[in-house]
Structures are given as C-alpha cells and as structure tokens.
Amino acid sequence: MNRHVLSVALVLAAACGAGHAASGLDGNDAGAPNDAGADAVAEGGENYGNDGAVSTPALRLSLDPTLDQPDNDAKVTSIAAARLLDKSGAQVAVAAAVDGRVVFRLAGVAAGDYFIELNGDAKDLVPTRIDDPSSDLLQRVGQNLRASFIGPPAKPTYRINTYSAGQKKSGVVRFSDGAALAGEQPYVIVTLATSKLEIMVLGTADALTSLVLNPCAGHANVAADAWLLNTTAQDHHGDLFNADGGSSNCGSCHLDDWMKKADFSWISPLSGWCFRCHYGTDGSGAGFVDPSK
Prior knowledge:
Layout: H1 5-16, E1 40-41, E2 47-48, E3 58-63, E4 81-85, E5 91-98, E6 101-105, E7 112-118, E8 126-130, E9 137-141, E10 147-150, E11 158-162, E12 172-174, E13 186-191, E14 196-201, E15 207-212, H2 224-228, H3 237-242, H4 246-254, E16 288-290
Parallel strand pairs: 3-9, 12-16
Antiparallel strand pairs: 1-2, 3-6, 4-5, 4-7, 5-6, 7-8, 9-10, 10-11, 11-13, 13-14, 14-15
C-alpha cells in the first residue's frame, strides 16, 4: 500500500482531512551533455532543440531550498544533469542544466507519472506528474530531493513528499505482518484542490492507497497538506499525536486508531485508522503499508 507520526497524520488527516486551501509553504514530512536528438538547455533556462529553435511545451524543474526542513541534508545544491524516467525505469528524455534549472521537452511524452533522476542519484528520485503534455509544466524541489510542488508557485497543483533509501527513510511493508518489502520506498502525492492523498511506490508509481481528506473539528483550521506533511510553522498530525496528551486527543475522534484489523477493508476513521497508511502508531518510521500483502 501505498505510518504514526505520518500515519496518524495521514490517518487523522484522512478522516478529518480537509477541504482546506493548500498551504503552499515549506514541505517535507517539501551529467553528461545531451546525446544527439536529446534536449539541451540554453542560457536563461529555455529549452532548445538541435536546430536552435525554442521548443515547447516543456517540463521545467528548479531547486528551491525553502522547501527543505531544518534537519534535511542537501542531496543536490546544483544540477549538472537530469534524466526523465518512466515507470519501468526507462529513459524518456535527457536535459542538461543551466543555473540550477533543467528543461525537458514534452513532445512525444504521454500523460502520466514519471521520475526525475538528478546528477545520477538513483536513490532519491523526484516524482512528477504530467497531466497535459501539450502545456508547459513547472516544478520545484528542495535540495534534499524530498519535498516538491508541481504547478505555478502561487497556486500549485500537487505537493509531493518522498521517503527514499537515500534519505534513510523506512520503506513499504506488508499490511499482514509489517515485514519490509525489499527495494520498495514510498512517496506521497497530494492533489491540493481536492485534498486527495495518494501513496505510491517510488520509481514505479505502483499505487498503495488513496483517499480524500475530509475536514473535522480536530484540525479544521489547518491546511490538509500541512496536517499530513511536516510544514514549517503549521500543525502536523504526527507532532500533535506525540505531544503530551496528544494520543488521547486523537482518540476522541479516531477512538481505537492503534488497533490493527484482520482485513484492510475493515479500517475506518473510528477504528484502526493509523494502519490506513502506516503499520501502526509509530508513523512513517514504521513504514507505509501495502494493503494487498
């Protein structure tokens, strides 16, 4: 599937979630030259084909260190090379970089979920989602390569958090017994306009779980994405759960959120809610569950 701190949060958020506006703030819990025929990036970040003409539409990715949390270590401080990969890991496009920005032409690229490999770092892939290949797409990612936003900075479409091996984060586990699934790391993507949460496998985009977060009294004034994912200066479900009296406060709405159900389909906001995303009350550190295993 696409745990307690995040789980509880994801969980809490899910049950209470939000039709709140996206926070649009910090988020985290936020090569070689082109081959013949590949895209190159010209001075100023524009994307040029081999004939020198500006080519559009394009996916433009830039680094934004304001998306990193204080405890994040920088994986990339400048971009030397970037590859766009599909869900099978096959290379779709290559881009050189100028001034920390890369540009991929989207001509011939189908709509769907993809991954960006920066500076050859295959352990910290950056997920991206292309809804309309005929339009330009903007994306920014923190230097830790964990937190990312897709869409215009003032009104992004998606918010993404990864839990990668390079970040030494817990991976995907079986819902049946919590055993780790080798080589599988999760990422979370939130559709900000609808507060829809999706948990998927990094590198393949295999779906683990999804749900729409609905508002509740416990966190009605917190943006849904911030409640689920650590955001500077905003309440987060995991932080509150671990605070003094936090678990009992969560229990006022989620009751026996700690109780594991025999079947994933039996989970509800009132019972076993932590297991909707994580393997119990220890949050993301306990791993994200695959409900099919």
